[in-house]
Design goal:
NADH Oxidase, globular, alpha+beta
Amino acid sequence: MEKTVSEAIAYRRSTRIYKDESIDTAKVKQCIYNASLAPTSSNLQLWEFYHITDKAILTKLSDACLDQNAAKTAKQLVVIVTRKDLWKKRTKANLDFLNRVYDKPNLSDNELKRKKMATSYYSKLIPTIYTDFLGILGYLKYIVFQIIGLFQPIYRQVRLSDMRIVAHKSAGLAAENFMISMAAIGYDTCPMEGSDTLRVKKILNLPSGAEINMVISCGIRDEKGIYGPRFRIPFEDVYFIR
């Protein structure tokens, strides 16, 4: 029986050693689909998901992941990639979707207002934020926005480095969707920071604009694969209510 959300969160542990037991590729694919439904900044979905089942590629990626146990014993791998370089294409996809949604006669005043606001957002604001040249425009926008921010609240994350962070935050949300979905069906994962991301990109033949968010190993946990009991800072030390 599939676990509830709370049960899946409690069950999920970073698994470093997996049993020599296969997992269902179709089920993992469904969990990746769940990842694609995660929240994403401006709905741009600047991500891609690489589902690795080929043994030869698994071996190469294990080497790129420093041959850590979580990679060596994994039955499958999922590589989450950010694609900030695709912002124009994803912006157009959102505009095309909006035009289809509102392609009907006799739109109400609210619908007309919504269409105008949304299309303006993707045709004007997103290009203003994402357009850059060697980081120079980003710093100019940053200075302008900081000045405006002296007088009113304004979005300030407009530098090239800021937009990279935005893309990685969205990818991180997708990764969590994936891992909780896997836990819900009794599959285990381990998000691995330790990897040679340049080698990972070469193995997957990714373009220069792609960035590795994380490599996630997948399988069925071996008892030795959970390195000790779970530790968390006391909740009272990290929870604040105002």
